Amino acid sequence: MVTNGAAPISEDDIKLSVAIIGAGPAGYYTAEALTTGKPGVKVDILDKLPTPYGLIRAGVAPDHQSIKNVSKRYAATNDRENVRFVGNLSLGQDITMAELKDLYDVIILATGAPTDRPLGIEGEDLDGVIGSGAFVGWYNSHPDYADLNPDLRIASVAVIGNGNVAVDVARILAKTANEMKDTDLAAHAAEAIHKSSSIKDIHVIGRRGPLEAAFTPKELGELNTLENCVALLDPSQLPPASGDADLSGAVKKNMVHLRAIAENTADDTKIRLHLMFYAQPVGILGEGRACGLTLEKTILVDGKAKGTGETEVLPTGLIVPCIGYRTSPIEGIPYNTGRGIFRSDEGRIDAQTYCVGWARRGPSGTIGTNKPDGIGIAAKILAEVKGGHKEGRVALDRLIAERNLHVVTFANWKKIEAAENSAATNGAPRLKMVDVDDMVSIAES
Ligand SMILES: Cc1cc2nc3c(=O)[nH]c(=O)nc-3n(C[C@H](O)[C@H](O)[C@H](O)COP(=O)(O)OP(=O)(O)OC[C@H]3O[C@@H](n4cnc5c(N)ncnc54)[C@H](O)[C@@H]3O)c2cc1C
Prior knowledge:
By secondary structure, this protein is an alpha/beta fold.
Protein backbone atom coordinates (compact mmCIF):
# COMPACT_ATOMS: atom_id res chain seq x y z
CA MET A 1 0.00 0.00 0.00
CA VAL A 2 1.34 3.47 -0.88
CA THR A 3 -0.03 6.92 -0.24
CA ASN A 4 -0.42 8.52 -3.64
CA GLY A 5 -2.39 11.70 -3.03
CA ALA A 6 -5.15 12.03 -0.50
CA ALA A 7 -6.27 8.43 -0.12
CA PRO A 8 -4.06 5.36 0.20
CA ILE A 9 -4.14 3.22 -2.95
CA SER A 10 -3.02 -0.29 -3.74
CA GLU A 11 0.26 -0.68 -5.66
CA ASP A 12 -1.70 -2.68 -8.26
CA ASP A 13 -3.71 0.44 -9.09
CA ILE A 14 -0.86 2.87 -9.66
CA LYS A 15 -0.88 4.20 -13.22
CA LEU A 16 2.25 5.94 -14.30
CA SER A 17 4.15 6.34 -17.56
CA VAL A 18 7.88 6.65 -16.96
CA ALA A 19 10.81 7.33 -19.28
CA ILE A 20 14.20 6.34 -17.94
CA ILE A 21 17.03 7.85 -19.96
CA GLY A 22 20.03 5.55 -19.88
CA ALA A 23 20.05 1.74 -20.02
CA GLY A 24 22.94 1.25 -17.60
CA PRO A 25 22.80 -0.36 -14.15
CA ALA A 26 21.10 2.65 -12.54
CA GLY A 27 18.38 2.71 -15.21
CA TYR A 28 17.71 -1.01 -14.95
CA TYR A 29 17.68 -1.21 -11.13
CA THR A 30 15.25 1.72 -11.09
CA ALA A 31 13.02 0.10 -13.72
CA GLU A 32 13.03 -3.16 -11.77
CA ALA A 33 12.04 -1.44 -8.52
CA LEU A 34 9.37 0.70 -10.18
CA THR A 35 7.64 -2.20 -11.91
CA THR A 36 7.87 -5.05 -9.38
CA GLY A 37 4.26 -5.85 -8.46
CA LYS A 38 3.03 -2.70 -10.19
CA PRO A 39 1.60 -3.62 -13.59
CA GLY A 40 0.20 -0.11 -14.11
CA VAL A 41 3.67 1.47 -14.06
CA LYS A 42 4.90 1.43 -17.66
CA VAL A 43 8.58 2.10 -18.11
CA ASP A 44 10.44 2.90 -21.33
CA ILE A 45 14.23 2.76 -21.01
CA LEU A 46 15.75 4.98 -23.70
CA ASP A 47 19.41 4.82 -24.65
CA LYS A 48 21.38 6.71 -27.26
CA LEU A 49 23.18 3.48 -28.20
CA PRO A 50 21.48 0.59 -30.00
CA THR A 51 22.85 -1.63 -27.20
CA PRO A 52 21.73 -1.79 -23.55
CA TYR A 53 23.70 -2.03 -20.26
CA GLY A 54 25.80 1.17 -20.26
CA LEU A 55 29.25 0.72 -18.74
CA ILE A 56 28.68 -2.99 -18.19
CA ARG A 57 29.30 -3.26 -21.91
CA ALA A 58 31.48 -0.21 -22.51
CA GLY A 59 33.39 0.28 -19.23
CA VAL A 60 33.91 -2.97 -17.31
CA ALA A 61 37.17 -4.51 -18.52
CA PRO A 62 36.92 -7.03 -21.39
CA ASP A 63 38.94 -9.57 -19.38
CA HIS A 64 36.52 -9.38 -16.43
CA GLN A 65 33.66 -11.19 -18.12
CA SER A 66 32.14 -12.62 -14.95
CA ILE A 67 31.28 -9.08 -13.79
CA LYS A 68 29.31 -8.56 -17.00
CA ASN A 69 26.99 -11.43 -16.06
CA VAL A 70 24.92 -8.97 -14.06
CA SER A 71 23.36 -7.96 -17.39
CA LYS A 72 21.30 -11.18 -17.24
CA ARG A 73 19.36 -9.63 -14.40
CA TYR A 74 18.67 -6.52 -16.52
CA ALA A 75 17.57 -8.71 -19.43
CA ALA A 76 15.07 -10.39 -17.09
CA THR A 77 13.67 -6.96 -16.18
CA ASN A 78 13.28 -6.32 -19.87
CA ASP A 79 11.15 -9.45 -20.19
CA ARG A 80 8.46 -7.75 -18.13
CA GLU A 81 5.37 -6.71 -20.01
CA ASN A 82 5.59 -3.17 -18.62
CA VAL A 83 9.30 -2.55 -19.35
CA ARG A 84 10.58 -1.63 -22.78
CA PHE A 85 14.08 -0.87 -24.13
CA VAL A 86 14.19 1.80 -26.83
CA GLY A 87 17.75 1.97 -28.15
CA ASN A 88 19.36 4.37 -30.60
CA LEU A 89 17.32 7.28 -29.28
CA SER A 90 19.32 10.15 -27.85
CA LEU A 91 17.94 12.72 -25.45
CA GLY A 92 19.16 16.04 -26.82
CA GLN A 93 19.56 14.81 -30.38
CA ASP A 94 16.41 12.86 -31.26
CA ILE A 95 14.09 14.15 -28.57
CA THR A 96 14.15 17.07 -26.16
CA MET A 97 13.50 17.21 -22.45
CA ALA A 98 10.41 19.38 -23.08
CA GLU A 99 9.00 16.76 -25.47
CA LEU A 100 9.63 13.95 -22.99
CA LYS A 101 7.80 15.94 -20.34
CA ASP A 102 4.79 16.20 -22.64
CA LEU A 103 4.78 12.44 -23.27
CA TYR A 104 5.52 10.92 -19.86
CA ASP A 105 4.40 11.47 -16.27
CA VAL A 106 7.93 11.03 -14.95
CA ILE A 107 11.39 11.29 -16.52
CA ILE A 108 14.38 9.74 -14.77
CA LEU A 109 17.86 10.73 -15.93
CA ALA A 110 20.20 7.74 -15.62
CA THR A 111 22.68 9.04 -18.17
CA GLY A 112 25.82 8.18 -16.18
CA ALA A 113 28.97 10.30 -16.26
CA PRO A 114 30.57 9.79 -19.68
CA THR A 115 32.82 12.86 -19.89
CA ASP A 116 36.40 12.78 -18.61
CA ARG A 117 37.21 15.18 -15.81
CA PRO A 118 40.02 17.46 -17.02
CA LEU A 119 43.45 17.41 -15.35
CA GLY A 120 43.53 21.20 -15.40
CA ILE A 121 47.19 21.42 -16.42
CA GLU A 122 48.98 22.93 -19.37
CA GLY A 123 49.32 20.64 -22.38
CA GLU A 124 46.32 18.42 -21.77
CA ASP A 125 44.90 19.26 -25.21
CA LEU A 126 47.93 17.77 -26.97
CA ASP A 127 47.57 14.64 -29.09
CA GLY A 128 48.45 11.59 -27.08
CA VAL A 129 46.53 12.76 -23.99
CA ILE A 130 43.43 10.59 -23.91
CA GLY A 131 41.02 10.50 -20.98
CA SER A 132 40.07 7.08 -19.67
CA GLY A 133 36.43 7.51 -20.77
CA ALA A 134 37.58 7.65 -24.38
CA PHE A 135 40.43 5.15 -23.98
CA VAL A 136 38.31 2.54 -22.21
CA GLY A 137 35.51 3.16 -24.73
CA TRP A 138 38.03 2.49 -27.51
CA TYR A 139 39.15 -0.90 -26.23
CA ASN A 140 35.57 -1.78 -25.32
CA SER A 141 34.07 -1.02 -28.77
CA HIS A 142 31.99 2.03 -27.79
CA PRO A 143 30.89 3.41 -31.20
CA ASP A 144 31.86 6.98 -30.22
CA TYR A 145 35.50 5.96 -29.70
CA ALA A 146 36.05 3.18 -32.24
CA ASP A 147 38.05 5.56 -34.45
CA LEU A 148 40.24 6.93 -31.64
CA ASN A 149 43.27 5.16 -33.07
CA PRO A 150 45.77 5.89 -30.25
CA ASP A 151 49.38 5.62 -31.37
CA LEU A 152 50.89 2.79 -29.32
CA ARG A 153 54.16 2.78 -31.26
CA ILE A 154 55.75 4.45 -28.28
CA ALA A 155 58.02 3.29 -25.46
CA SER A 156 56.33 4.70 -22.39
CA VAL A 157 52.78 5.32 -21.14
CA ALA A 158 51.62 7.37 -18.14
CA VAL A 159 48.35 6.28 -16.54
CA ILE A 160 47.27 8.88 -14.02
CA GLY A 161 45.15 7.78 -11.08
CA ASN A 162 45.15 5.26 -8.27
CA GLY A 163 41.78 3.58 -8.73
CA ASN A 164 40.61 0.47 -10.52
CA VAL A 165 40.14 2.25 -13.85
CA ALA A 166 43.88 3.06 -13.89
CA VAL A 167 44.65 -0.58 -13.09
CA ASP A 168 42.28 -1.72 -15.89
CA VAL A 169 43.97 0.53 -18.46
CA ALA A 170 47.48 -0.56 -17.42
CA ARG A 171 46.54 -4.25 -17.42
CA ILE A 172 44.82 -4.18 -20.81
CA LEU A 173 47.91 -2.52 -22.34
CA ALA A 174 50.18 -5.10 -20.69
CA LYS A 175 48.35 -8.36 -21.33
CA THR A 176 49.35 -10.59 -24.21
CA ALA A 177 47.11 -11.79 -27.05
CA ASN A 178 47.08 -15.17 -25.34
CA GLU A 179 45.88 -13.65 -22.07
CA MET A 180 43.15 -11.74 -23.92
CA LYS A 181 41.97 -14.47 -26.27
CA ASP A 182 38.82 -15.36 -24.34
CA THR A 183 37.74 -11.74 -23.83
CA ASP A 184 35.68 -9.30 -25.88
CA LEU A 185 38.51 -6.80 -26.40
CA ALA A 186 37.65 -4.71 -29.48
CA ALA A 187 39.21 -6.13 -32.64
CA HIS A 188 40.82 -2.75 -33.50
CA ALA A 189 42.32 -2.55 -29.98
CA ALA A 190 43.66 -6.10 -30.16
CA GLU A 191 45.36 -5.21 -33.44
CA ALA A 192 46.96 -2.07 -31.95
CA ILE A 193 47.97 -3.59 -28.61
CA HIS A 194 49.15 -7.00 -29.75
CA LYS A 195 50.54 -6.21 -33.21
CA SER A 196 51.71 -2.55 -33.35
CA SER A 197 52.48 -1.58 -29.76
CA SER A 198 56.08 -0.97 -28.75
CA ILE A 199 55.26 -0.06 -25.15
CA LYS A 200 58.00 -1.09 -22.72
CA ASP A 201 57.12 0.96 -19.63
CA ILE A 202 53.70 1.67 -18.11
CA HIS A 203 53.62 4.12 -15.20
CA VAL A 204 50.63 4.19 -12.85
CA ILE A 205 50.87 7.49 -11.02
CA GLY A 206 49.17 8.53 -7.77
CA ARG A 207 49.28 11.86 -5.96
CA ARG A 208 49.05 10.24 -2.55
CA GLY A 209 50.61 7.16 -1.00
CA PRO A 210 50.01 3.41 -0.97
CA LEU A 211 47.71 3.64 2.06
CA GLU A 212 45.45 6.12 0.28
CA ALA A 213 45.19 4.27 -3.03
CA ALA A 214 41.65 3.30 -4.08
CA PHE A 215 42.57 0.06 -5.88
CA THR A 216 40.66 -3.00 -4.76
CA PRO A 217 42.99 -5.85 -3.66
CA LYS A 218 41.89 -8.32 -6.33
CA GLU A 219 42.58 -5.87 -9.16
CA LEU A 220 45.89 -4.73 -7.66
CA GLY A 221 47.03 -8.33 -7.09
CA GLU A 222 46.29 -9.18 -10.70
CA LEU A 223 49.06 -6.79 -11.78
CA ASN A 224 51.55 -9.18 -10.21
CA THR A 225 50.40 -12.19 -12.22
CA LEU A 226 50.81 -11.07 -15.83
CA GLU A 227 52.49 -13.22 -18.49
CA ASN A 228 54.70 -10.63 -20.15
CA CYS A 229 54.79 -7.82 -17.61
CA VAL A 230 56.57 -7.30 -14.33
CA ALA A 231 55.07 -4.91 -11.78
CA LEU A 232 57.65 -2.77 -9.96
CA LEU A 233 57.60 -0.45 -6.97
CA ASP A 234 60.39 1.41 -5.21
CA PRO A 235 60.30 -0.09 -1.67
CA SER A 236 61.16 3.30 -0.17
CA GLN A 237 57.64 4.44 -1.14
CA LEU A 238 56.10 1.95 1.27
CA PRO A 239 55.47 2.74 4.94
CA PRO A 240 57.41 0.74 7.55
CA ALA A 241 56.23 -2.88 7.70
CA SER A 242 55.89 -2.54 11.48
CA GLY A 243 52.62 -0.65 10.90
CA ASP A 244 51.00 -3.38 8.78
CA ALA A 245 49.49 -5.16 11.79
CA ASP A 246 47.37 -2.08 12.51
CA LEU A 247 45.91 -1.97 8.99
CA SER A 248 42.57 -3.52 8.10
CA GLY A 249 40.27 -4.31 5.17
CA ALA A 250 41.30 -3.49 1.61
CA VAL A 251 44.27 -1.35 2.69
CA LYS A 252 45.77 -4.29 4.57
CA LYS A 253 45.27 -6.63 1.61
CA ASN A 254 46.67 -4.03 -0.79
CA MET A 255 49.76 -3.70 1.37
CA VAL A 256 50.44 -7.44 1.04
CA HIS A 257 50.34 -7.09 -2.77
CA LEU A 258 52.44 -3.92 -2.74
CA ARG A 259 55.15 -5.51 -0.58
CA ALA A 260 55.27 -8.48 -2.97
CA ILE A 261 55.54 -6.13 -5.96
CA ALA A 262 58.32 -4.14 -4.26
CA GLU A 263 60.42 -7.33 -4.19
CA ASN A 264 60.24 -7.81 -7.96
CA THR A 265 63.20 -6.96 -10.15
CA ALA A 266 62.94 -5.70 -13.71
CA ASP A 267 63.16 -8.33 -16.42
CA ASP A 268 64.01 -6.43 -19.57
CA THR A 269 62.36 -9.00 -21.80
CA LYS A 270 59.01 -8.00 -20.31
CA ILE A 271 56.92 -4.84 -20.08
CA ARG A 272 57.70 -2.94 -16.86
CA LEU A 273 54.69 -1.63 -14.94
CA HIS A 274 55.84 0.99 -12.45
CA LEU A 275 53.61 1.93 -9.52
CA MET A 276 54.58 5.50 -8.62
CA PHE A 277 53.18 7.18 -5.53
CA TYR A 278 53.53 10.74 -4.20
CA ALA A 279 53.71 12.31 -7.69
CA GLN A 280 51.27 14.80 -9.21
CA PRO A 281 51.13 15.88 -12.85
CA VAL A 282 51.78 19.59 -13.25
CA GLY A 283 52.32 19.95 -17.00
CA ILE A 284 52.46 18.08 -20.29
CA LEU A 285 55.29 18.77 -22.71
CA GLY A 286 55.18 18.59 -26.47
CA GLU A 287 54.38 20.47 -29.65
CA GLY A 288 51.23 19.09 -31.22
CA ARG A 289 51.91 15.72 -29.57
CA ALA A 290 52.67 14.92 -25.96
CA CYS A 291 56.25 13.79 -25.36
CA GLY A 292 56.63 14.19 -21.60
CA LEU A 293 54.77 14.56 -18.35
CA THR A 294 56.11 16.86 -15.64
CA LEU A 295 55.55 15.33 -12.23
CA GLU A 296 55.90 17.14 -8.93
CA LYS A 297 56.85 15.18 -5.84
CA THR A 298 54.24 15.43 -3.09
CA ILE A 299 53.97 14.92 0.64
CA LEU A 300 50.81 14.21 2.60
CA VAL A 301 49.41 17.00 4.75
CA ASP A 302 46.21 16.13 6.64
CA GLY A 303 45.63 13.29 4.21
CA LYS A 304 45.94 15.59 1.17
CA ALA A 305 48.74 15.67 -1.39
CA LYS A 306 50.83 18.84 -1.25
CA GLY A 307 53.39 19.68 -3.93
CA THR A 308 57.00 20.04 -2.76
CA GLY A 309 58.22 22.03 -5.78
CA GLU A 310 60.60 19.22 -6.75
CA THR A 311 59.82 18.12 -10.31
CA GLU A 312 60.97 15.55 -12.84
CA VAL A 313 59.97 14.91 -16.45
CA LEU A 314 58.73 11.47 -17.40
CA PRO A 315 59.22 10.91 -21.13
CA THR A 316 55.96 9.48 -22.50
CA GLY A 317 53.97 9.50 -25.72
CA LEU A 318 50.62 8.49 -24.23
CA ILE A 319 49.00 9.94 -21.13
CA VAL A 320 45.73 8.44 -19.91
CA PRO A 321 44.18 10.39 -17.02
CA CYS A 322 41.89 8.11 -14.99
CA ILE A 323 40.78 10.74 -12.52
CA GLY A 324 37.00 10.63 -12.73
CA TYR A 325 34.11 11.67 -14.91
CA ARG A 326 31.36 14.21 -15.27
CA THR A 327 27.74 13.90 -16.30
CA SER A 328 26.97 15.60 -19.62
CA PRO A 329 24.69 18.61 -19.08
CA ILE A 330 21.20 18.49 -20.63
CA GLU A 331 19.37 21.63 -21.72
CA GLY A 332 16.78 22.65 -19.17
CA ILE A 333 18.24 20.54 -16.34
CA PRO A 334 20.03 22.33 -13.47
CA TYR A 335 23.67 21.32 -13.26
CA ASN A 336 26.19 21.31 -10.43
CA THR A 337 29.29 22.43 -12.31
CA GLY A 338 31.65 21.83 -9.40
CA ARG A 339 30.65 18.19 -8.96
CA GLY A 340 29.76 17.48 -12.60
CA ILE A 341 26.33 16.04 -11.78
CA PHE A 342 22.73 17.15 -12.12
CA ARG A 343 21.55 19.41 -9.33
CA SER A 344 18.91 17.56 -7.36
CA ASP A 345 17.37 17.17 -3.94
CA GLU A 346 18.36 13.57 -3.26
CA GLY A 347 17.44 12.64 -6.82
CA ARG A 348 14.43 14.95 -7.30
CA ILE A 349 15.12 17.61 -9.92
CA ASP A 350 11.56 18.93 -10.24
CA ALA A 351 8.03 17.60 -9.81
CA GLN A 352 8.35 15.50 -12.98
CA THR A 353 12.09 14.83 -13.25
CA TYR A 354 14.47 12.70 -11.20
CA CYS A 355 18.04 11.45 -11.55
CA VAL A 356 19.79 8.30 -10.41
CA GLY A 357 23.14 6.49 -10.55
CA TRP A 358 26.30 8.29 -11.59
CA ALA A 359 24.22 11.17 -12.98
CA ARG A 360 22.98 11.78 -9.42
CA ARG A 361 25.89 10.72 -7.19
CA GLY A 362 28.95 11.16 -9.39
CA PRO A 363 31.32 8.43 -10.58
CA SER A 364 31.94 6.32 -7.51
CA GLY A 365 31.01 2.94 -6.14
CA THR A 366 30.46 -0.37 -7.84
CA ILE A 367 27.70 -1.64 -10.10
CA GLY A 368 25.90 -2.84 -6.96
CA THR A 369 25.89 0.67 -5.46
CA ASN A 370 23.35 1.61 -8.11
CA LYS A 371 20.83 -0.91 -6.79
CA PRO A 372 19.90 0.79 -3.51
CA ASP A 373 20.04 4.07 -5.42
CA GLY A 374 17.48 2.78 -7.95
CA ILE A 375 15.27 1.32 -5.23
CA GLY A 376 15.41 4.60 -3.31
CA ILE A 377 14.48 6.74 -6.32
CA ALA A 378 11.64 4.40 -7.26
CA ALA A 379 10.21 4.62 -3.73
CA LYS A 380 10.58 8.40 -3.75
CA ILE A 381 8.75 8.71 -7.06
CA LEU A 382 5.91 6.42 -6.02
CA ALA A 383 5.52 8.42 -2.83
CA GLU A 384 5.74 11.87 -4.43
CA VAL A 385 4.14 11.70 -7.87
CA LYS A 386 0.39 12.08 -7.93
CA GLY A 387 -1.39 9.70 -10.33
CA GLY A 388 -0.27 9.78 -13.93
CA HIS A 389 -2.30 10.52 -17.01
CA LYS A 390 0.18 10.94 -19.87
CA GLU A 391 0.17 8.59 -22.84
CA GLY A 392 3.78 7.51 -22.50
CA ARG A 393 4.90 4.79 -24.92
CA VAL A 394 2.03 5.21 -27.38
CA ALA A 395 2.90 8.86 -27.82
CA LEU A 396 6.61 8.07 -28.07
CA ASP A 397 5.90 5.56 -30.84
CA ARG A 398 3.98 8.25 -32.71
CA LEU A 399 6.91 10.64 -32.43
CA ILE A 400 9.36 7.92 -33.53
CA ALA A 401 7.23 7.21 -36.61
CA GLU A 402 6.81 10.91 -37.46
CA ARG A 403 10.57 11.47 -37.26
CA ASN A 404 11.42 8.21 -38.97
CA LEU A 405 13.81 7.32 -36.17
CA HIS A 406 15.47 3.90 -36.39
CA VAL A 407 15.10 2.79 -32.81
CA VAL A 408 16.19 -0.63 -31.60
CA THR A 409 13.83 -2.72 -29.49
CA PHE A 410 15.03 -5.33 -27.00
CA ALA A 411 14.05 -8.14 -29.39
CA ASN A 412 16.07 -6.45 -32.11
CA TRP A 413 19.05 -5.92 -29.78
CA LYS A 414 18.93 -9.70 -29.33
CA LYS A 415 19.62 -10.01 -33.08
CA ILE A 416 22.70 -7.82 -32.69
CA GLU A 417 23.76 -9.88 -29.68
CA ALA A 418 23.33 -13.12 -31.63
CA ALA A 419 25.40 -11.75 -34.53
CA GLU A 420 28.18 -10.69 -32.12
CA ASN A 421 28.16 -14.06 -30.38
CA SER A 422 28.32 -16.03 -33.59
CA ALA A 423 31.20 -13.89 -34.95
CA ALA A 424 33.39 -14.72 -31.90
CA THR A 425 36.39 -17.03 -32.28
CA ASN A 426 38.98 -18.71 -30.02
CA GLY A 427 36.75 -18.89 -26.95
CA ALA A 428 35.87 -15.18 -26.97
CA PRO A 429 32.32 -14.50 -25.75
CA ARG A 430 31.49 -12.13 -28.60
CA LEU A 431 33.00 -9.96 -31.30
CA LYS A 432 31.47 -6.59 -30.60
CA MET A 433 30.14 -4.46 -33.42
CA VAL A 434 31.21 -0.82 -33.40
CA ASP A 435 29.26 0.77 -36.22
CA VAL A 436 25.78 2.03 -35.30
CA ASP A 437 24.47 1.78 -38.89
CA ASP A 438 25.62 -1.85 -39.12
CA MET A 439 23.94 -2.62 -35.81
CA VAL A 440 20.71 -0.95 -36.90
CA SER A 441 20.67 -2.84 -40.18
CA ILE A 442 21.03 -6.16 -38.35
CA ALA A 443 18.35 -5.07 -35.89
CA GLU A 444 15.98 -4.26 -38.76
CA SER A 445 16.80 -7.38 -40.80
C1 LIG B 1 36.22 1.93 -16.87
C2 LIG B 1 35.23 1.49 -15.83
C3 LIG B 1 35.30 0.20 -15.34
C4 LIG B 1 34.40 -0.21 -14.35
N1 LIG B 1 34.50 -1.48 -13.88
C5 LIG B 1 33.67 -1.87 -12.88
C6 LIG B 1 33.78 -3.19 -12.35
O1 LIG B 1 34.64 -3.98 -12.78
N2 LIG B 1 32.92 -3.54 -11.35
C7 LIG B 1 31.98 -2.67 -10.84
O2 LIG B 1 31.23 -3.02 -9.93
N3 LIG B 1 31.85 -1.40 -11.36
C8 LIG B 1 32.67 -1.01 -12.35
N4 LIG B 1 32.54 0.27 -12.86
C9 LIG B 1 31.48 1.15 -12.33
C10 LIG B 1 30.11 0.89 -13.01
O3 LIG B 1 30.30 0.72 -14.39
C11 LIG B 1 29.15 2.04 -12.69
O4 LIG B 1 28.88 2.01 -11.29
C12 LIG B 1 27.83 2.00 -13.42
O5 LIG B 1 27.97 1.68 -14.78
C13 LIG B 1 27.09 3.34 -13.31
O6 LIG B 1 25.80 3.12 -13.83
P1 LIG B 1 24.91 4.25 -14.51
O7 LIG B 1 23.69 3.55 -14.97
O8 LIG B 1 24.77 5.41 -13.59
O9 LIG B 1 25.76 4.80 -15.76
P2 LIG B 1 26.20 4.09 -17.13
O10 LIG B 1 26.54 2.68 -16.93
O11 LIG B 1 27.24 4.97 -17.70
O12 LIG B 1 24.89 4.15 -18.06
C14 LIG B 1 24.45 5.37 -18.62
C15 LIG B 1 23.72 5.11 -19.91
O13 LIG B 1 23.10 6.33 -20.34
C16 LIG B 1 23.19 6.42 -21.75
N5 LIG B 1 23.07 7.84 -22.11
C17 LIG B 1 23.92 8.83 -21.76
N6 LIG B 1 23.49 10.00 -22.27
C18 LIG B 1 22.34 9.74 -22.96
C19 LIG B 1 21.43 10.54 -23.71
N7 LIG B 1 21.60 11.87 -23.85
N8 LIG B 1 20.36 9.95 -24.28
C20 LIG B 1 20.16 8.60 -24.12
N9 LIG B 1 21.01 7.79 -23.43
C21 LIG B 1 22.07 8.36 -22.85
C22 LIG B 1 24.55 5.82 -22.06
O14 LIG B 1 24.64 5.38 -23.42
C23 LIG B 1 24.61 4.66 -21.06
O15 LIG B 1 24.10 3.47 -21.64
C24 LIG B 1 33.41 0.70 -13.86
C25 LIG B 1 33.35 1.99 -14.38
C26 LIG B 1 34.25 2.39 -15.35
C27 LIG B 1 34.19 3.80 -15.89
